[in-house]
Design a protein that fits this description.
Helices cover 3% and strands 42% of the residues. With 559 residues, the protein is an all-beta fold.
Length: 559
């Protein structure tokens, strides 16, 4: 009896080991004259017999299908308009498993019961769709136990639950170190990235030479096939990649008002460490300059530095990714944390109140209220966003004051709605175009400001624009307090005051960050000349104060 049980158990285990799936195979015969012998499929799952697996017409459509038992794993197959070799389709190069080496069969990976798409006979994709075949060569990298994935704004079009999900669109290992998949999408241009794993933080850093807003791009207006080396442009090199020592030096003195060198830490993140950070910089001589030396592949090196107030409070520096071309052992010059240019941090100004106001008159307010976020807080950006308060005299204007704000400069944005919520609207304007912000790598621009002294600063902007506005006691309408001409100007300009000049006035010409470029205190003339040689091309703000009145010209444009 024990032998019988053992025999039955062995059969049961063998059955599980070769568990079969019900897989529906479909083909669209639109435009084809169907052979009298019918439509068939032959493949690795049934011994490549051209007559064994007939497909049945679905109703009166041009779709033919059959449900076949298949094991998990990769299959190869072809459709036949008939039941003998010679009536098999010519599979387009894009869809063949390895046409360069003579294998032009279709292919797919099976995992569980499924229905394969109804591809056009001898075509690449279902009717109305384009085939987007994306592949990555992982020969330079150790593949994660969680597999290799692609994430982008193509996923919903390809039938997945949502876009930019790093865990749903797994790529398959077809040969060697190549991982790939064919996605059937609505013809469009799509952005995507490869992920060595199944979570953000393990995604590749796309080199700037082939990046569009920090991502790869595929034009699926037509059928398209693309293969790239992971985190590189083009194929992987066949020879060993030279490596060099790179030293990064970051000045943290500009953050010392909130940075505590006795407890806080500094690291950098980038493709070098999978954007996970934990490559720590140190300051052995306690001068506020933090450094690290790493050995990295030659070519493009991307990174950003970060500092930790606590183990869970990560503060990324603003601006775009810092990009260098590594062609030899390199020690980077000192760069102030958060700056895009080299140079030590400027002397910290005395703390002062920093007030932000945003005019939401043109917006539909989202749930949760209006927020300001940036590198002004710790944690920074979305995790440390501060809710703004509507003014009682004008509920469309929201404001927030950072009391005794310490850093000299910063980057920020206004947010309509609770940060990270589905309906939230973050500002997306190209602020750098109108000189009130800076580029932010592959993301939308950030606003920027700079404090030049210990005086309070007020920054007032219309949501998602560089347009400023004035707030003050006995406000004077723009244009009635003074005028400026010529405007725009490519040389000198004149401010014409319209006040009753019975007392003195103050005039300030500022750039959009709030930095005062020209000023006149206790001024009592009706004309003020602006020296065009002092102003670079860009947008400037003019403020005149006196007799408890204030007015601001929204735009003084210097060409």
């Amino acid at each position: 009896m024990k032998k019988i049980y053992s025999f039955l158990l062995a059969i049961l285990i063998a059955g599980f080991a070769f568990a079969q799936n019900n897989v529906t195979v479909q083909v669209d015969m639109t435009g084809q004259t169907v052979d009298a012998a019918g439509v068939h499929v032959a493949g690795s799952f049934q011994g490549w017999d051209p007559a064994a697996t007939a497909l049945i017409q679905v109703g009166t459509t041009d779709i033919y299908e059959a449900t076949v038992n298949m094991a998990d794993g990769m299959i190869e197959y072809k459709f036949l308009n008939g039941d003998a070799w010679g009536t098999d389709e010519g599979v387009p190069t894009l869809s063949g498993i390895d046409p360069a080496n003579g294998n032009g069969n279709r292919w797919s990976f099976i995992s569980g019961d499924t229905a394969l798409p109804a591809i056009m006979f001898a075509g690449d994709a279902p009717m109305g769709k384009s085939a987007m075949r994306i592949a990555v060569d992982m020969s330079k990298d150790t593949v994660s136990a969680d597999g290799v994935h692609a994430a982008g704004n193509f996923q919903a079009s390809a039938g997945f639950a949502g876009d930019w999900d790093p865990a749903t669109s797994e790529l398959f290992n077809t040969k060697g170190a190549i991982y790939e998949r064919i996605f059937f999408v609505t013809p469009d241009t799509f952005a995507y990235k490869f992920v060595n794993g199944n979570a953000w933080g393990s995604d590749e850093g796309v080199p700037s030479a082939c990046a569009v807003n920090g991502n790869r791009e595929a034009n699926a207006m037509i059928d398209v096939a693309q293969i790239n080396c992971y985190a590189s442009c083009g194929p992987c090199p066949t020879a060993a990649i030279p490596t060099y020592d790179l030293t990064i030096n970051v000045d943290m003195n500009g953050s010392m008002c909130s940075f505590d060198p006795t407890t806080d830490t500094v690291d950098f993140a980038g493709p070098f460490n999978g954007w996970a950070g934990k490559s720590y910089l140190t300051d052995p001589d306690n001068d506020g300059i933090y450094s690290i030396t790493v050995n990295a592949d030659s070519g493009e090196f991307l990174f950003k530095t970060r500092w930790y107030k606590t183990s869970s409070s990560v503060n990324w520096e603003g601006g775009g990714d810092k990009i260098i071309q590594l062609a030899g052992d390199t020690a980077l010059p000192v760069r102030c944390f958060g700056a895009d240019v080299y140079g030590s941090c400027s002397t910290l100004q005395p703390p002062a109140d920093l007030t932000f106001r945003v005019d939401m008159s043109n917006e539909t307010l989202q749930a949760g209220g209006v927020f300001i976020m940036g590198d002004l807080t710790s944690p920074n950006w979305q995790d440390g966003a501060e809710q703004m308060t509507a003014r009682t005299d004008n509920p469309a204007i929201f404001e927030y004051t950072f009391v005794d704000f310490c850093p000299n400069n910063g980057q920020y944005k206004f947010v309509n709605g609770t940060p990270k919520a589905t309906s939230t609207q973050e500002e997306t304007y190209d602020f750098h175009v109108d000189s009130c912000g800076v580029l932010n790598g592959g993301f939308a621009d950030n606003r920027v400001f700079e404090r030049v002294d210990g005086n309070p600063v007020e920054l007032n902007f219309v949501f998602n624009t560089c347009n400023s506005f004035s707030v003050g006691v006995n406000e004077v309408a723009i244009g009635s307090a003074f005028s400026i001409y010529p405007n725009p100007t490519n040389s000198d300009a004149v401010i014409a005051l319209n006040y009753n000049l019975n007392s003195n006035y103050s005039i300030e010409v500022m750039d959009v960050t709030g930095k005062i470029i020209l000023s006149a205190i206790n001024y009592n003339d009706s004309r003020y000349s602006i020296d065009g040689d002092v102003l670079n091309s860009g947008l400037y703000l003019v403020k005149v104060t006196g007799n408890n009145t204030m007015a601001t010209i929204e735009k003084l444009i210097v060409k």
